[in-house]
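User: Fold this one for me? It's Agmatine deiminase.
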Amino acid sequence: MSVILPAEWAPQSAVQLTWPRPDGDFAERFEAVEDNFLRLAAAITRFQDLIVACGEDVEGLRARLLAAGCPGARLRLYAVPADDVWARDHGPITVFRNGKPIHLDFVFNGWGGKFDATLDNEVTQQLARKGAWNTLVESIGFVLEGGGIESDGQGTLLTTERCLLAPTRNPAFDKAHIEAKLKAWFGLGRVLWLKHGDLLGDDTDGHIDTIARFCDASTIAYQACDDASDAHYEDLKAMEAELQALRQANGEPYRLVPLPLPTAIFDETGKRLPAGYPNFLIMNGAVLVPTYGVETDAEALRRLVPCFPGREVIGVDCRTLIHQYGSLHCVTMQIPSAAA
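Assistant: Here's what I get for Agmatine deiminase.
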């Protein structure tokens, strides 16, 4: 049986968002975060359909999306409740088995039990029941978040030990067992593990999508740090060395694209927020890159443009999202073509 976990640059039918709740974790910043989501939705619907899991006010949200410039024909809204907005981690992970799409619905336990995720864990099945997609949804009793894995579409998976081996996720399985399961579910030939790499303030235990991303099968963009006085310096330099030692399946080194570390951003309590540039979303014809209103934004966009020929590289201000310790890729889940 042929199994493929498509790369993010494979053709897509839609992108899923889970809309913020006025009484949710962003309650104190709800207007700002909804504005962030409206800008993101407008950027997505320039290129493809948008599936939104939202509360009961479906028509009110539709009106706000239309006012924000989203084409009505590209909006697919469903009254599906959720705890929070992180669709990357509670949305479906799509594979193709013998060419047929399957939505894998893994367990989401709030990043190792840090937060209640009861409603989030039901979102994929609820969207299926509401008709958001006709693709078969297959539930898997294993804790795995989409932000924790990165596929090149050719049988290689990039991930981190800190996340996938965290004892709060799947304590019954060791590294060898987890790798064997990943290979079976995703049709992999190999799994590349990083021991280092983390952003201060991140509560996912080091999701790969915050630190290192495939741009194509031979190119990895990663979060760099060249300031020896920065708290990230030692760990990100160690990750950089790990990436330099990795080899493609053909034995060649990867082309590595370092992205500047965003100018430090802190919340009102003085806690550093996990701003990073690898948390971009690849879509049909575009790459949406988080920006933070800091001086490093322009340089990050400049470095990413050559990585995506034929795609428009677009910055989306995500300074509100990082107040709940995630960014652009974390709130989106792409749905590959033929799967929605």
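One thing worth pointing out: Residues 3-336 form a domain with the L-arginine/glycine Amidinotransferase; Chain A fold (CATH 3.75.10.10).
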